[in-house]
Amino acid sequence: MKPRALTLLLLLPALTASAQRPIIGIFESTSSGSGDNLGQPGVRVLFYQSGRQWRSYNATCQDEACLKTIVHLYPPVTTWTLVKQGKSVAKVAATTPTAYHSYSEIGVQAITNPAAVLHLEPRPTPDRPDPPHTILATNLSSLTDPDNWQPAAVFPLDLTHVIQAFHKLYPQPKNCTQNTTNSPPNYHSSPYSDSQIKLDASYLSNKTNWRMLQITLGGYLCDGPPDDAYVDHWFAISPTGEVHHLGRLMHLAGTADFAHEGRSELLFQVQGGNEAGYRLFYDNFTHQAQDTVTYH
Questions:
Q1: Is 80 exposed, middle or buried (0-12, 13-18, 19+ CB in 10 A)?
Q2: pLDDT of 245 over the 70 cut
Q3: Which of 29, 142, 181, 230 is least buried, going by the fewest C-beta atoms within 10 A?
Q4: Are 108 and 211 part of one and the same domain?
């Protein structure tokens, strides 16, 4: 029989692993260091599990002095498993710097061996300065998607119900018309038809029968950035047909069981100009957590 002390010593690694608090991150190819899309690969630390809830670190700064102290909110070192479309693509160690260089770098850990991950995702280019991030990061050993979210053909009735919900959100959004060639645009409330709404994406959970649709209203005629109604919007549809508006200007980064509890969470990248970030939906879209990335 092994001595009790030896038995506990042998069990310690397993106990430590089982007690490890799940953390969600996202791989970003240029976010570490300079904070201007010219940096090194890093992992942005997004959410941690507290009880049954997912929480953001809520780390924001109002001045440059804060960039030196806010680093203490994050784990000093993390071993990450990087996952794309359910497959592990790398295991990396990443460290929190002694100070951040910019507001947008808050929460980013620098990968200790950047050469190993340089080609995991496209780097920014002048034509595509902010490519979407789709490589999930976990401090657990692996990730699966038990709810089995997949692109799928849209159910016509789902699209009808989503369009109806969109009309309720934006019954008469602002648009522009120009009566004569040299007259200034006339900014006014404008009706629109169902045919102006384009389906961008459709997803189905093959386990739960929840669905998601991404749509965009076209036909914006004003100069400058489009109003809220004219950007992409995401909706979730329950198995019984209830429609839920999830948000706008979002890209689906991935779906995974980040806590190994048998159900999937959905991670979106929010592309919102000066304040962007990430949004996590879980428990059949009844809960969400938001991590904001501020650029100025």
A1: buried
A2: yes
A3: 181
A4: no
The predicted-structure confidence for 131-188, as pLDDT tens digits, reads as follows 889 999 999 999 999 999 999 999 999 999 999 999 999 999 999 986 545 555 688 8
256 vs 38, 141, 150, 208, CA distance in Å? 29, 13, 12, 14
Per the CB < 8 A criterion, the answer to whether 261 and 250 are in contact is no
The pLDDT of residue 274 is 61
Q: Closest by alpha carbon to 194, among 225, 218, 158, 229?
A: 218
Q: Per DSSP, which regions of the chain are E strands?
A: 23-32, 40-50, 53-56, 77-84, 87-95, 108-111, 136-138, 149-151, 174-177, 186-189, 197-205, 211-217, 232-237, 243-248, 250-256, 265-270, 275-282, 287-294
d(CA 203, CA 64): 42
d(CA 42, CA 28) in angstroms, rounded, equals 5
Residues 36, 133 within the same domain: yes
Could you report the per-residue pLDDT of 65-123, keeping only the tens digit for each?
A: 999 999 999 999 999 999 999 999 999 999 999 999 889 899 999 999 998 898 898 87
Can you give the residue range of the structural domain that contains 45? 21-138
Question: How far is it, in rounded angstroms, from Cα 265 to Cα 280?
Answer: 7
pTM for this one? 0.89
- Estimate to the nearest angstrom the gap between the alpha carbon of 207 and the chain centroid: 22
- Domain containing 81 — which CATH number? 2.40.30
Helix ranges, the chain (H): 4-18, 66-69, 156-169
Q: How many Cα atoms within 13 Å fall on the side-chain side of residue 240? A: 2
C-alpha atoms less than 13 angstroms from C-alpha of 266 in its C-beta half-sphere:
27
Tell me the pairing of strands 77-84 and 149-151. unpaired
In this structure, the chain runs to a length of 296
Co-location of 126 and 172 in the same domain = no
In a domain, 243, yes or no: yes
Q: Dihedral angle at the C-alpha atoms of 250, 255, 258, 262, nearest 10 degrees?
A: 140
